[in-house]
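User: I'm preparing a small set of examples for a lab meeting where we compare how different chains pack in three dimensions. I only have the primary sequence for this one, and I'd like the structure in token form so I can line it up with the others. Please keep the answer compact; I'll paste it straight into my notes.
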Amino acid sequence: LTEVYSHQGPEIRSLREALRLSQGDFGSLLGAHFVTVSRWESETTHPSKFQTDLMRYFQLAVERHACDEIGVVLKTAGVAPALALLLGRAVEQAGRYRERTRQKKIPHNS
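Assistant: Understood. Below is the structure token output for the 110-residue chain.
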């Protein structure tokens, strides 16, 4: 996971745009008003630790190319299902990473 959330506005904007979300939709996922998202992006204010942690999970969705799906779910089903999808994707990604790491540690007999 790329550590871009040291509260840098351009990285937050880049993530939001990668997810193809408006400031309002992105804010809905994070429990923030669109004006607040604008302030994060202009580095006038900074997201909370909780919001920053959620953005790390959102980055996993971007890395898994689930951007279009998340936008559709957000707009048709709402915030809770979109968050569930994002977090589910993050858990899947973490599980695959753990499995690859575990397999590298197991010696194979030739």
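A couple of notes for your slides: Residues 1-5 have pLDDT under 50 and may be disordered. DSSP finds six helices and no strands in the chain.

User: Perfect, thanks.
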